[in-house]
Each structure stands twice: as C-alpha cells, then as structure tokens.
Design brief:
It is built from 13 helices and four strands. By secondary structure, the chain is mainly alpha-helical. The strands form two sheets. A two-stranded parallel sheet has the order 1-2. A two-stranded parallel ribbon has the order 3-4. The two termini are 20 Å apart.
C-alpha cells in the first residue's frame, strides 16, 4: 500500500456537480430545519440493536439452555452485532451520530470495542483509505485480495479464483473473526510502516497498548465470564462465539460488497505521476452502487448502507437522512450527466456481486485483458 499522500484526484474538466449538489443538500436541511446528525429514530435503533446483541448473552448466562437453544441465541447476537456495526458504530466513527464530537468519539469507541475492533485502525482503513480511494487497489484495502478472494481486476488471477463465486460467502463468515483476532495488529504494523499512521513512537506505544487491552476485555467478556463465573463448558462457548461471528461476518461483508464489488463499478489506477484523472466526487459515483432503496426494513437494519452513493459523498451526515437525500443526488447526477448506479432490489445486487466474483475469477485463458 502506498502512503495516502502519493495519489491525487485531478480532473481536466472542471465540473460544478459536487458544489451544486452540496448547496442543494445544505438547502434541504435548512429548509426542513433538520440536524444532519441522528434523530429519535437512530436513538431508538441504537437501544433496540444493543438489546439484540446483549440480551441473548444475558439469557445464556442465567438460564444456560440446551446447546441447540444456546446456538440460536448466539445466532441472534450475530444479527445484533452486524446491525450495531452498520447502524450505530458506523455513524459515530464517521462523526455523523451527534453534533458533539465527544459523543461521536465515545459512542464509536464503546461500540467498536464491544464488537472487538479498534477505532484507530478502523479510522485509517475505512474513513481515510476506503473513502478517499474507493476501489483503487493497494490503497483501498476492501478491494485488495484476501486469502483466496479476488476483488480487483488489477491483481493476479490464481487457479482457485475461478471457484470464488461458490466459496466466497464461506470466507465472508470468518472475516470478522480474523478482524477481532489478528487484523488490528496486522493493520497497525502495516499502517505504521507505510506512513498512513503518522503518530509518534510514543503515541503508537499508547495506541498499541489500548488495542491489546481492548482485545483482552473483549475475550474476557465472551469467554471469561461464561466459563469462569457461570461454569458454561468451553466448547459450548466456542461454538456459540463462532456462530455469532459467522452470521455477523456474512451479513457485514455481503452488505459492504454489494456497494462496490458488483457489475458496473470502475477500478481506476493512478498514472505514473500518481494522479487519477477524475473529479473525486464523480470517482465516488463511478465506484459506488446503491441497492434496494425502497426497502424500508432493510434500510433500517443496514444503517443506510444500501445508500452508499449518498454515504460516500456525505459521510458526516447520518444515514437516517439518506432516503430523502437520494432523490436530490439522483436528480443532480442526471442533470450533470453523471452516473447514478443503483440495483433496485437486494436480490439483483446479490446476483450482480456473484456475477462479478465469477468474472474476476476467470482463468487467464478465458479472461479479457484488463487495462
């Protein structure tokens, strides 16, 4: 991965698309007398999803039901884990949950630590690298190859990639488990060595200590409490923990993939001068896809991540406003001749993702040459 300052967006054609869009979005909030941050809907959602995540764990501890029911409760916790990550933590870590930055910091930190992650690494990987360099391989880690998965047309094709459309979701189910065990340490080392992490050595010692303490607390909560305090057998806790992460991993990873790893998205590369010849906002429109915008229940659960176009253009605006903003973005894009990529249903988006996995995984003899 290159240092974040080595690649720039430079457009030869000056466009008023984003300035015009920003004025219209600002006017919407002013005319409606609305805050760009959370509202009562998001507060209630935070409470509900926190309960979905933690209440089943309390039931497990106090009632200690048979293994089958126990696994079902861990399954529900996986649904809650994914929902909290998408709806609550995501907004807070983007600074969109509250107008008060301290509230954003504490809500983001508490919930991300509850999910086993690190706010420091998440901010660098997601807020900085993914949002700035969406679908730019080696900069946006989300499109870098992962174990046996290939998401970019610009990385080498391996023999097993031709089957990735079949096995991908199995690996999606273990990605959050990798996240809470090793990924934060791998990212910390990587971001420090490549210059993305600009902290001093002293700051990094403190940061690393915080990551280690948070990991210990996370595993003590899910393993220490049930095993040492309540006498639940280790194998039951381990099976349940794996179930929670498998469910949460599939949900989280699939939802994120449907926004960028589908048919129709572009994967631009910088030229020899480190320049991507495009306006940044239009780059976001070319690399990001919405899906199932009319499904209110899905939108509620995934935290507006089915409105990824709006989120990438306005990450500091809470997702509760994206359904209304999408009409403004779509109309403005059409006015300026800018693509507005959208899959009408979840099923269409999922099929498009699977097709894209199949396309990227073709063997070289059957594959078009990628430029």
């Amino acid at each position: 991965m290159k240092a974040k300052s080595s690649v720039r967006f430079v457009s030869k054609d000056k466009t008023l698309f984003f300035p015009t869009l920003k004025k219209r979005v600002d006017a919407y909030f002013k005319d409606q007398n609305l805050s760009k941050n959370s509202n009562s809907v998001l507060i209630l959602k935070s409470i509900v999803l926190t309960a979905v995540y933690l209440v089943p764990f309390g039931v497990l501890l106090w009632l200690q039901p048979p293994l089958g029911i126990s696994i079902a409760l861990w399954f529900i916790m996986g649904v809650g884990m994914a929902g909290l990550g998408m709806s609550v933590m995501h907004d807070a870590c983007h600074g969109a949950y509250s107008e008060n930055e301290k509230v954003n910091y504490w809500v983001g930190s508490i919930y991300l630590n509850m999910l086993g992650g690190s706010t420091f690494n998440w901010n660098l990987q997601h807020n900085v690298m993914h949002h700035m360099y969406t679908n730019v391989v080696h900069l946006d880690e989300d499109v870098n190859d992962k174990l046996v998965l290939k998401f970019s047309p610009h990385t080498p094709i391996k023999m097993f990639h031709q089957f990735q459309w079949l096995y991908a979701f199995l690996f999606y189910g273990i990605l959050t488990l990798y996240w809470v065990t090793l990924k934060d340490f791998v990212n910390f080392i990587t971001f420090t060595s490549n210059g993305v992490n600009t902290n001093t050595k002293v700051q990094n010692v403190v940061t690393l200590a915080k990551i280690i303490i948070a990991k210990i607390a996370y595993y003590a909560f899910f393993f220490g409490i049930p095993i040492l305090l309540f006498g639940i057998p280790f194998y039951q806790v381990m099976l349940g923990f794996l179930m929670m992460h498998f469910v949460g991993g599939i949900i989280l990873t699939t939802v994120f993939q449907l926004a960028h790893s589908v048919e129709g998205t572009s994967h631009p590369l910088p030229n020899e001068k480190g320049i991507i010849e495009n306006d940044w906002a239009i780059h976001q429109m070319n690399t990001t896809v919405n899906f199932s915008r009319q499904n209110k229940l899905l939108s509620w659960y995934v935290g507006g991540l089915n409105f990824q176009v709006e989120h990438h253009l306005f990450p500091k605006i809470s997702h509760v406003h994206y359904p209304q903003l999408s009409n403004i973005v779509k109309e403005t894009a059409e006015e300026f001749g800018v693509p507005y990529l959208d899959n009408p249903t979840f099923g269409q988006a999922l099929r498009s993702h699977i097709t894209n996995l199949h396309y990227l995984g073709r063997l070289p003899d059957f594959n078009e040459a990628f430029g």
